[in-house]
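Weekly modeling sync, notes
Attendees: S.R. (lead), two postdocs, one rotation student

Agenda item 3: backlog of single-chain predictions. S.R. asked that every request posted to the team notebook include the full sequence so nobody has to chase files. The rotation student volunteered to paste the first one in as an example of the format we agreed on. Action items at the bottom.

Example entry:
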Amino acid sequence: MVSLALGTLNVSVQYLFKPKGRLTWHYRRHVPVSVKAHYPQPHILKSLQTRDDVEAAKLATELNRHYEEEFSRLERGLPKTHAQPTYDLALEKLNTFGLYRNAINDQSAPVDAA
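Predicted structure, as returned to the notebook:
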């Protein structure tokens, strides 16, 4: 855990560290024992690709939220990532052809799409 001085505030951010001799911040945490079989390494290490303390704190917090959700899903026997609903996949496929939801009612849509 790193404590950052942000103006008059001191903020503690878990899993945030700056390796010796490096200029950028990194996210590092150990993989929980209950889900270690799903990861090739016993820890997760990612460069946050920033030198800014505030940006690094935000990125580390967001990355930690992502991994907490992933660990929770794996512990419940679900896949690592949340499956995208079929409806959203269908909309993406239509978008590749220049079609989109409400294209028929949209007056700004090209005539051939309507």
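Discussion: group reviewed the output briefly. The mean pLDDT is 86.
Action items: rotation student to repeat for the remaining queue; S.R. to check formatting next week.
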